[in-house]
Amino acid sequence: MSRISFFEGQPLEISIVGRVDPEFGHGWIALLPDGTKTILEDKYYALYQFKKDQKVVGVVDRINCAGRVYFEPEHPVYKPGNCYSFAVLGTSEKDFIDGSKERCVTVTDFFGNTIDVVFHNTHTIGRSISLHVKAIHKGRPVLEFPNDTVNQNFSVSFLVTCKITENRKQYFMLEDQGKTNYKLPAHWYKYHKIEVGGPLLCRVWYSTAKDGYRIEPMHPCYKEGDLVDVKPFIRRDTLWARDCFGQIVKIQGNLQSADLPQSVKCKVLRIRKGKPVFLLQNQ
Q: ∠ CA(141), CA(143), CA(146), 5° rounding?
């Protein structure tokens, strides 16, 4: 029997069935093709003018470690892969975590959202500029200059200065070369053998969606892009596997066969919160 399983970037059509109870939030309730619900929050999509019983097309934006699917509706104006003109508000410099400085232009989109766009090459910045829409995330275009690839991924060695407890949760405190401190939730990395007083090599990237840095310690077993064999199992009609530490991880994608194989080959899409994100490869 075919089981519905989603993967990031997958085109989907969802159905809007009603509003969220105002006691619990503001937005529209929608049904995914497998019958599970997702929320289109007003703070991201109020100007999309959704209606009850409307069919909405879009893509799977992200699937978290617990298997929750985040849907991104098709933008009313912008389509990923195309270039559009954006009004310029100003330019500035951003300090990156590796100590470098990057030039940045701030623009406004069709709905009045302000967006920072980092660039390397020399560009003429006028009252408006043409930018490439790389993706849509939470109702906003993710922008870049055409033919200007910005490396926002770094490997940085931090000093683990101490371990603290806040609100009954433990964190490792990391310090970079500029003496800036960062908190790393300890419970995500209980298998990483992080030692206070020692160095910790991390992958660091600047998230335009969050307008801040993301820090992920190098995984002891996996690297992004690795192809690995894992033993799959079914739970609640969803495909899962265990990583090298025995942690349960959802597998994105669908099996071609009705029979569950002994092992499947997966690509490591990324590492988040100490766990790999697996994408099923064609069998």
A: 140
> What integer is the mean pLDDT of 146-171?
85
pLDDT tens-digit map of 76-126: 999 999 999 999 999 988 766 666 677 889 999 999 999 988 887 778 888
How many whole angstroms separate alpha carbon 167 and alpha carbon 74? 39
Residues 269 and 224 sit within 8 Å (Cβ to Cβ): yes
CA distances from 185 to 138, 195, 215 (A): 25, 14, 11
Interatomic CA distance for residues 207 and 62, integer angstroms: 14
Neighbour count for residue 243 (Cβ, 10 Å) = 19
Q: In this structure, are residues 31 and 40 in contact, taking their beta carbons and an 8 Å threshold? A: no
**What is the rounded distance in angstroms from the CA atom of residue 40 to the CA atom of residue 138?**
9
Give the pLDDT mean for 137-166. Answer: 86
Contacts 24+ apart (CB under 8 A), 264-270: 264/229, 264/230, 264/232, 265/227, 265/228, 265/229, 266/227, 266/228, 266/229, 266/230, 266/241, 267/225, 267/226, 267/227, 268/222, 268/223, 268/224, 268/225, 268/226, 268/227, 268/228, 269/8, 269/224, 270/224
Q: Each residue of 229-238: pLDDT tens digit?
A: 999 998 877 8
- The rounded distance, in Å, linking the Cα atoms of 41 and 124 is 37
Percent of the chain with pLDDT over 70: 91
- Whether 251 contacts 243, CB under 8 Å: no
Mean pLDDT for 166-174 is: 94
Mean pLDDT for 197-222 is 84
